[in-house]
User: Fold this.
Amino acid sequence: MAGPKNNSLSSLEHEIYSWQYDVPGFGAVGQQKLKDATVLISRCGGLGGVVAYELAAAGVGKMILAHAGDIKASDLNRQLLMTRKGIGTSRMDSIESRLLDLNPDLEIKAVHENISMENAPSLLEEADMIVDAAPLFEERYAMNDTAVCLGKPMVECAVFSLEAHLTVLVPGKTPCLRCLYPEPPPTWTRRFPVFGAVSGSLGSLAAMEVIKWLGGFGKPLCGTLLAYDLQDVSFRRYRIQRNASCECCSHIKQS
Ligand SMILES: [Zn+2]
Assistant:
């Protein structure tokens, strides 16, 4: 991870993060790793917005954030980085402003468009880790294919109604998204049922996977898919394996 020069933690930052220093295996060394890191999040709505907020609170140094469009009234049941008075204005402007209110030390590269095959290579290149919180499979595939190509780890998270899925994809070690979904699921739609409390719960779990991976502690959710259903609060873990004939990642040797 290549942080800017003189990227050491200030005395105020040491104070802000002191409560998390006591987590076993983290400490000031882990904090410096977060500050030196760059995380790309696409998108920053009900799910990715909570990931971004938790990572800003935890002290990640730089984020590349991709989210197109203007705030709609129908965003506001879940998109916690947006507000009612902002309806009709840029989502990304609101995202940037809310995150910098919380953490003015955060460096943000604001991308006012969604991830595509055209912009993914240059945007993902700069990131140490990627968070896929996009609603459309074309965006998910663009991030997956580029992440595999660049050898970058990606936190894969998705919600539908009261259900949520989470895993960490690592090229050469775990399945990629196309191993799991060679084709978009037939039931997938742009608009889906969701409570903010469901997407927010998953956003917090996804943020913790980023913090563990970058901070070098704990056991990231690699090779395992966590699936939970808040209808009856059931949690299940599934082992997931690479697809030997995956069109995206089968050429990469297991590492
Ligand atoms: Zn694959």
The chain has nine helices and eight strands. The longest strand covers residues 154-160. The chain has a mean pLDDT of 95. Residues 16-239 form a domain with the Rossmann fold fold (CATH 3.40.50.720).
